[in-house]
Every structure is written in C-alpha cells, then in structure tokens.
Design a protein that fits this description.
By secondary structure, the chain is of the alpha+beta class. The protein contains four helices and five strands, in the order ββββααβαα. The protein has one domain. 44% of the residues lie in helices and 17% in strands.
C-alpha cells in the first residue's frame, strides 16, 4: 500500500513534481489546486527553502519535528489524504484568531 506522510500544516509527502504527471510519451500538466491559505507564492517559497537546505539542516529539522509535542507524523493511506487535509484545514480555520479570519 502506498502512503503519504502528512505534516502538521497538511502538506503530504512525496508531492508531485511541479504538478506534472508523466505517462509514456505524454506529459500532462495538472491544474494547480491549493489548500486553504496556500498560493503559488507560498508553494515556491517552500520549494526554495528545501532546495537550499543542507543535509545537516534537513536532519535537524526532521529530528526537531519528531520532538514536537503539539503534532506528530503519521502514515496515511493515499486514498485518505484528501479527507485528512480537509480536516486539518478546517481545524486551522477554526483556530485562527478572529482578526486573521476577517482578512
């Protein structure tokens, strides 16, 4: 069974590369659909962060994430990833301060 790992921000790994699906002799560009609160600029910022990250920084970040008591990494079957992302987005929206919700 293939799975994704979800972060506390609802990001699933491994993500598709540039939203492109490759089939023999055909390259299909999928339309970008961003989760609540995400846009192209934020995606590019995350990509740049990880592209510039050293191996030592990546290991330190992973170790820190495992020590975080407010979240956890879980294995989720691929078929459930959209539902889990939706739950995370709803939870995040409900827990935004009132001032942020109006903007």
């Amino acid at each position: 069974m293939s799975s994704f790992f979800l972060t506390q921000h609802g990001a699933a790994f491994p993500p598709p590369i540039n939203g492109e699906v490759s089939t023999p002799n055909i390259l299909i560009k999928k339309q970008n659909e961003f989760p609540l609160g995400w846009d192209e600029e934020r995606v590019q910022s995350v990509i740049a962060h990880y592209d510039q990250q050293t191996e030592d920084e990546a290991v330190a970040e992973a170790e820190e994430a495992l020590q975080n008591e407010s979240s956890m990494l879980i294995e989720v079957p691929i078929a459930l990833v959209p539902a889990v992302r939706e739950l995370i987005a709803k939870h995040a929206a409900q827990n935004q301060p009132q001032a942020e919700q109006r903007t």
